[in-house]
Design a protein that fits this description.
88 residues, 4 helices
Length: 88
């Protein structure tokens, strides 16, 4: 019974991801005025020659730092869960 429920959950998740993936517009991202602004002004405002680096470290620096903290915390938690404990 437990195995059948697991299979049903996996099938439902695959169907849900398939429905979501078919609704996405791959290769044709929506055009936004902010995109053009960042591309045209990133070098002047940040001094970076790479637009991606300017966005990651200047425009969204605190967001990137927060994401790095979350990833580090998740990795640390995983390491603590799977560590070998000494026999008591």
């Amino acid at each position: 019974m437990r195995r059948q429920i697991s299979i049903i959950v996996v099938v439902l998740m695959v169907l849900m991801l398939g429905v979501i993936a078919t609704g996405l517009s791959f290769g044709h991202p929506p055009d936004h005025p902010m995109d053009r602004y960042v591309i045209m002004n990133s070098q002047l405002e940040s001094g970076a020659n790479n637009v991606v680096a300017a966005v990651l470290f200047d425009y969204r620096g605190l967001d990137t730092l927060g994401e790095a903290v979350v990833l580090f915390t998740a990795a640390l938690g995983t390491m603590l869960m799977f560590r070998k404990r000494e026999e008591e």
